[in-house]
Amino acid sequence: MVHTLTDDSLVYGGLRMGRAWSEHRRVVLYASGTVALVVVAAVVLNVLGGSEGFSLSSTSGGGGYFTVFALVFGDAVCPILPGETTLNAASTLAAEGSLDLPLVMLAGALGAIVGDSTLYWIARSSRRRIQPQVEKAEKNKNAALALEYMGSSAPVVIVAGRYVPGLRFVVNATMGLSEFPYRRFLLWSAIGGALWSVYTCGLAYLIGTALSGFPLASVIIAGVVTTVAIAVVFLFLRRARRQERAALAAERPAVGSAR
Q1: Is the residue at 77 inside a domain?
Q2: Would the pTM count as exceeding 0.90?
Q3: Which of 64, 84, 151, 217 meets the CB 3.0–4.6 Å disulfide criterion with 58?
Q4: How far apart are CA 89 and CA 216, in angstroms?
Q5: How many domains does the chain have?
């Protein structure tokens, strides 16, 4: 059988090639933008903190701050990396005078915001690869419970979801998959990332100052306090949700008898 090329087939083929090229170009642009943001963050943090070394415990260079940025950024894209632990450790070093706390907070916030945006665009441009991972993560009991309590408000989920381990990946990837407007996502991601960094670093700094001379204990206690605080919040939310359901259940018989 001999296949002939018609005008329609040529147009269809051209459209497919155009879409493929457009998608490829968009991915390249996103990747280039991410690299540019990482480079800019590295330059800013090194200029503000100095230019010697890339150790977290560097006392005179900006490398420590870039390490904080890089690990928090990586944690947003790959949740197995130690984002909170990095901020706790860096803030403890700041309490000992090795690092500057405001710069640690800045590095953490930048890493969170750039990492969130990176995952958003990865999900938006690679739906087939990200969707199964999101569905798997959503089956996690803690993540599902947290999403239920937070409700359907995107700003609340984006800001509060950052504090629940594993949930930030689900939230940010889902926003990309659903094509939630990026400008709104970036706004709430920036608010959430900044609040999260300031809270985490501030708490670890206070504990590190109180337990001066015991850096490892300070890091562990800071992580435990945050975990307990999150658990307490969810206990209150669970109690409020149960009371709300009980009130609704009590109203239903009354409505039925009135009829």
Answers
A1: yes
A2: no
A3: 64
A4: 8
A5: 1
